[in-house]
Amino acid sequence: MEFKNVSVVKEANVYFDGKVTSRTVLFESGEKKTLGFMLAGDYEFNTDAEETMEVLGGEMSVLLPGESEYRLYTKGESYIVPANSSFKMTVEKYVDYCCSYKN
Asked: Please, which domain of life does this record's source organism belong to (predicted)?
């Protein structure tokens, strides 16, 4: 899949000593997404806006807010993280992802 008529922020978003990186994609409609890549590791992220995380490649185990067990997400699957929350994930090898932010 590809995006048309977008702007891309050139500077990368870099987290966890470079193990997680992404680029911000801005749409004419005001929609914002990030395209990123994560190396193996354990991570915890905080959200401001609601996020939909789509796995484009690889896999991640995710502990969503209010859940007591991690769930494995693989290529083609997605999940939603509520606004103003935090979530944890474990990546065994790598994950390629697209994160969409609710306006």
From this structure: Bacteria
Query: For the chain, how many structural domains are there in total?
Result: 1
Q: Is residue 69 domain-resident?
A: yes
Region of 50 on the Ramachandran plot (φ > 0 left; ψ -120 to 50 alpha; else beta) = beta
Tens digit of pLDDT for each residue in 39-65?
A: 999 999 999 999 999 999 999 999 999
Token duo for residue 86: 């935090």
Measured distance between the N- and C-terminal CA atoms of the chain, rounded to whole angstroms: 22
The single-letter DSSP state of residue 12 is P
In a domain? residue 102: no
Give SS3 for 103. Answer: coil
42: containing domain: 6-97
pTM assigned to the model: 0.92
Task: Provide the CATH number for the domain around residue 44.
Answer: 2.60.120.10
